[in-house]
Protein 1
Amino acid sequence: MQVLSYQIADSIDIRQFKAAFKAELHYSDSDELFYIMGTDQFIYVFKYGVVCFLNYDSIRISSFLQLIEPFCKNLFEESLSEEFIIETNASEYRIGYNKIEIVNPDISVLRLIMLNVSQSVSLDYYSELTTRMLEETNSHTQKLERRGRLDISGKGLKRFIGKTLLLKNRIAENLYIFDSPPETWENERLNKIDIELKRTFDLQERFRNISEGLQIIKDNLELFKDILQYRNSNMLEWIVIVLIAVEVLNLLFDKIFR
């Protein structure tokens, strides 16, 4: 069995898609939809912009992605993807680098595997965004080191701060995706598989790296903001000095020529 997960957009309108797409729905809530499409064929749709397929060929995947496009916000020109292999009828559960061997392909186990693969591709997306913002932040820091001043305007800094806060809010909004699903709390077998999958995909470590990257960006932006405030304060002081000087000159001029 082949699992293919795609990050296709910033988000997907789950409610509207559920109303429009009529198929056998095994599980749903406000954040995700899990469809049974045939014998050992499933589709998992997540509100954070990920669609996951089990046992789907490229043609049917392409067809479904076109179908879901109208329900996507900020659709990507090129989607991120991740592949994982499931081998069935094993003597015991074993997880490798890019595959898992399972005893029985029951639907709860298959859904759990698809969930973790989807979490992984979503972390790739957030990691890519964080890396880009870190590079942009570092470029301003390097120019500050070389020139002793910032080359970003107040408006540009505000936009950059807004972009950082938006990313932090989106990650915070989707924090639940890195939690274990409720089924694993009561099922020891599922809990063990979930723990091993999270370890295989390094989900916790990758999430921590993203959080640390965002904190570095935040600290730099705070420094940039203080520098700009100091620069603006100095400018206002000089404006006041110039105005006072002009007023003094006017008074002197009046006294001399009267």
Protein 2
Amino acid sequence: MQKRNKYSEIEDFLADESFQLWILSKKDDQNWEEWTVENQKRAKLVENARLLLLAMKVANSDLPPSKIQSALESTWRKIEEKEIFQKQTIRSKVAFLHKYWLAGVAATLFFAFLSVWIYENNFVRTSNVVTYNELIEENKEGLVEQTNNSDKSQIITLSDGSSVLLQPNSKLSYPKIFTGNERKVYLSGEGFFEISKNPKKPFFVYANEIVTRVVGTSFRIKAFPDQQNVEVLVRTGKVRVKSNELIASSNSKEVVLLPNQALRFVRKDLVFNKITDITKDEILVRNVGNIEQLSFEFTDIPIAQIFETIEQAYLIDIDYPKDKLKDCHLTTSLSDQPLSEKLRIICKSIGNDTTFEMNGNQIIITSEGCN
């Protein structure tokens, strides 16, 4: 699989059976999509190879004879130049080209521009793509990367107490300790964020081509590298979203989102679509999780029921002494609080001798009973 890191010519990709399978049959067993978007220059080379391969599948053409003749003449000139160059360098590659591709390249090249329309309408423009790896390279701090390769969401607790519910096939990079006057993290995939309030130290989430800025709130970001759109949905508080400065045509315009509002960023066109009523958007409604639907306002509610609500929201397990806490009730507001702060408030309300310990998706409560 590592041999493709050395590919420098279009022919290298055309000769790779797994590449052909990915382009022609949409079967990506070798993770071509993820590998491609990791590097902007690589993405351009892959795109050129893709156009050639797709062009060979074009059945008919309405092009006038003059254009076909012109394209053929230009194509053969390129082939002759390439053949001379190849003979001077690597004999084996020339033999390969003679055997498999020279006969087809002439017909392929003049059809290639027919695939441009497909590319423009179905793929992100390479010049505007911002990848997760590029974002990481821009950061000069030492970052910790958490990758969720499981089929369940994972809880990540940051040094400031903020929590992130990281979804499967997603990853988050963040510093061990936030320094300076900003807090920055980098997301690839999907995560639900609950940010500790600190007006003097705003929190930034970099995800593909957008930057989300908050002080203290809860929201979801969905930014997978192989999808056309980036989505931001606000549960509580207020967030500000703008284009990443790495985009060539980026501007400083910000979109402000309030609770139950969302934004869909169309990566191909660099367009922000604000959604003021998320209940009318079928895609958003379909993807809303437990943590965004459940209420964390409790009035004289048994502790067991509160723990059950938290388990459902975060998809975690809470181990606590049920017999000692069976008669405990609690009245409190836990909305707009990160998971660690929710647990701290609950433990303090139960009694001074009540503590909690977080170990991944497992929470252990230690207590001698209610006050």
